[in-house]
Amino acid sequence: MKIVLASNNAGKLAELQTLLVPLGMTLVRQSELNIPEAAEPFKTFVENALAKARHAAQLSGLPALADDAGLCVDAFGGQPGVDTAYYATRFGYPKGDDTNVTALLAQMQGVTNRRAAMVSTLVAVRSADDPEPLIAVGRVVVQIAPERRGSHGFGFDPVLFLPEFGKTFAELPTEVKNANSHRGRAAQAMLALMRERWLDGSAA
To answer: What are the positions of the active site (predicted)?
Structure first.
């Protein structure tokens, strides 16, 4: 089955493609089909993911999968949340993964409560008008490290410290990260939903 990924993020495509292999699904990035990015005007991950999935399905005529993910920092009242991708721009930096990390480390200076959660909400629709979208959420509690560590992954991975591993996501091998990340957990839940709802539980 071919399914459109309602994202142009290469990191997300690589992670999700690997995670969906067991279902025999092929992810196609929406940019390959000349589909523009959807507006994300909402304040919650699930609303934005649903909007992106319906948009991609509408313009492609294919099933679509969307991910809306973000960093929710306790000391910031859950922010930046749905605005995570643009976090750095709040502080005069250009948009980007590296500048996001730079801005976060600067804002966390002197902050003792470094608890945060990475949240991933996956939404899949069979068509733009699907009345029963599949919704899966993955959440991982982390500590914001005081400096970058590791060279793997993308986004905030170099400063997302997992106490149970004693490492940041960027220090973990890809297979370990995928098994324990917010997106990995959401993808596993989505796999179960797809097997049950879309594939009649017949997929291995």
So the answer is: 68
How many residues appear in the chain? Answer: 204
Terminal C-alpha separation, the chain: 15
Catalytic residues: 68
The pLDDT averaged over each successive group of 10 residues in the chain (204 residues) is 87 80 87 92 96 97 95 97 94 95 97 97 97 97 97 92 96 90 90 90 50
* DSSP letter assigned to residue 199: S
- Say what the pTM is: 0.87
- Comparing C-alpha atoms, which of 189, 145, 186 is closest to residue 167? 145
Per the CB < 8 A criterion, the answer to whether 7 and 66 are in contact is: yes
Q: Is 103 part of any domain?
A: yes
Q: Within a domain: residue 127?
A: yes
